[in-house]
Amino acid sequence: MQSRKWFGMGSLLLLFATLLAACGGASTASPTTAPAAEPTAAPAAEATTAPAAEPTAASAASGAPDPVTLQLKWVAQAQFAGYYAALEQGYYTEENLDVTIRPGGPDIAPEQVVASGQAEFGINWLASLLASRDQAIPLVNIAQVYTSGGMRQLSWKDTNIATPADLKGKRVAVWFFGNEYNLLATLAKYNINKDSDIELIQQPFDMNLLLNREVDSAAAMTYNELYQVLSAGHTLEELNIIDYNTEGTAMPEDGIFVSEEWLNADAKNKDIAARFLRASFKGWAYCRDNPDACVEYVLAQDSGGVMTQEAQKWQMDEVNKLIWGDPINADTKIGYLEPALFERAAATALQFGVIKQPATDAAYTHEIWQLATK
After folding, report:
1. CATH of the domain at 211
2. Where are the alpha helices (DSSP H) in the chain?
3. How far is CA 104 from the centre of its chain?
4. What is the distance between the alpha carbons of residues 242 and 64, in angstroms, rounded to a whole number?
5. DSSP 364
6. What is the distance between the terminal CA atoms of the chain, rounded to a whole angstrom?
7. Residues 170 and 307 in one domain
8. Per residue in 245-282, pLDDT tens?
9. pTM score, whole prediction
10. Domains in the chain: how many in total?
């Protein structure tokens, strides 16, 4: 069996944002042709700021808009459509905020950007935030936008991997550097030894290993890599899909976080954070009800021309499911991090080495969510 190299936590932290985010990289494959290798990141886009608007009576009364920056985890795509919708629909302006959205990329770590004061808000996976806190970087989750994990494990039906138990003895591909923890937790649940019971393969950020049948199973995000497989001419009926949410081993993705120092430095910052959440939630609600319009907002950010409308439409629909449920439930408490979900993610992170010390509930707060939704 292939042995798996483990890295120090310092290296892990530096790689978290790069490699966790890359899982959600923009999908560009045509729906009628097999995808080529995962495209490189689009040329760095200019940060997007709210358009100039006539001041309303409310904004004029409250003074000049508060300038804030949101650091995305990856390049502009439907994964982040709600924030672009809040910008374009004027929801941030209504909250007297002057918001700049900075796209991410392979060399940008949102945790470092926020911790260094270059942005007030960032997007990351909860596992990455826990790793940062374990390294004494005081970041805190103020809203968990994705309430369901988007990571899956795919296999061809003729490989006969109907349940995680069937992974035993198979060649299993997954992204390393922190992306593997959902899989490892699931293997442990089924008493499968990752070193001796399977051959664990480091997966690149494309689906070629699975498409070429070089592995029996491969990781995929519902809103990206699954689309790549389908756009290569395959159907869902050809696949077996392990859903980590069903297994109870998923760790949530795409939460909004801030620096504890910034949040507590001034009472006004909590108000700013609440206004930012309120406008962002409205943006995501707009994308729930107007997915096609939100796809256009995202495509307008594509200065490199690497995105396709069909791929972004797929991504928008799948992202809406991760936020609002499947089927869509407009009554979902968007942004509310369920304590049980946090506890499960924290236990998984500790068990598989994302963190060395048990995480505490100081890693998240409901205070700002409550201010935003009252």
Report:
1. 3.40.190.10
2. 9-15, 21-22, 57-61, 81-88, 91-94, 110-115, 126-134, 181-189, 208-211, 225-231, 244-247, 260-265, 267-289, 291-299, 309-324, 339-351, 367-373
3. 12
4. 50
5. B
6. 54
7. no
8. 999 888 889 999 999 999 999 999 999 999 999 999 99
9. 0.80
10. 2
